[in-house]
Amino acid sequence: MNRLEEVLGTVLLKARQASTLPLEDLIPQAQPRRRFESLEALAESVREQGVLQPLLVRPLEDGHYAIVAGERRYRAARMAGLTEVPVQVLNVDEHQARRIALVENLQREDLNPYEETLGVLALLSEELGKSLEEVVALLERMRKERRGVAAQNVLGSPEAQKVEETFRALGRLSWESFVTSRLPLLNLPEDLRRALEEGTLPYTAALELKKVGDEKIRQRLLREVQAGLSLRDLKARVRQINQGAQVPTPWHREVAGRLARLDLEALPRERRRRVEAKLRELLALLEGEGEQT
């Protein structure tokens, strides 16, 4: 059990004994989970066996209870026609509730990489008291300093230590791996982000498809990946596409090409005289360069 799980376990031990509350008294809260898959199957299970694991809730001043963890069970219970569900009431403030919700959701195996990325950033935001944008900027500065790209003087700071402690507690990626492989998911094109969020595209394939600038080609490859194209074959296809992309011709080669096609005789007399003078000047310059070498 990691430290974050221990914290969550300590809070649950201090919670009131499990009881039941009417569904109408419960209010869902924002959380990293954006998809609630297989709700129909869970609702059928709830009809047969009831809600087996209590929802975690905290009391609000108006008499309602905010759902800290268990919104999927809450939704399934509504679908199943239940009027009340088992709950554990936590005596925590809003900050502690958000922290518990984030930790609880990040422990779930079905959280996709995009949702997990947002969840980790949200947890760091809570731990550091910073906005998501500030957290991302901090992680980027840490990476630059670690790579020796720039002297950021941040790795030894209390904030950086808190970042490292949080990632160790989560027991998943290191912060370096998170910055390298997960932060790029925040800048995906809309079609890739949507597919990733829906769970129809692996994040490794999303990062590879991101390298394709042509939207039509990218969408065609996306459909092929969703139809079963392997990551290995995808990388080969992307490499082939990018290598075949048009490389701008250097300006001096373009000039040489135009000169090779030039018909001096067809130019007006004054313009021809000026072009010939420039060409003789260029020829003399090139011959002089040859003599120096």
TrEMBL record:
Pfam families assigned: HTH_ParB, ParB_N
GO process annotations (BP): chromosome segregation
InterPro entries in the record: Chromosome_partition/occlusion, HTH_ParB/Spo0J, ParB/RepB/Spo0J, ParB/Sulfiredoxin_sf, ParB_N
Keyword DNA-binding: yes
Sorted UniProt keywords: DNA-binding, Plasmid
Stored SMART domains: ParB (SM00470)
Entry's Gene Ontology molecular function annotations: DNA binding
Cited NCBIfam families: parB_part
Protein name: ParB-like partition protein
Species name: Allomeiothermus silvanus (strain ATCC 700542 / DSM 9946 / NBRC 106475 / NCIMB 13440 / VI-R2)
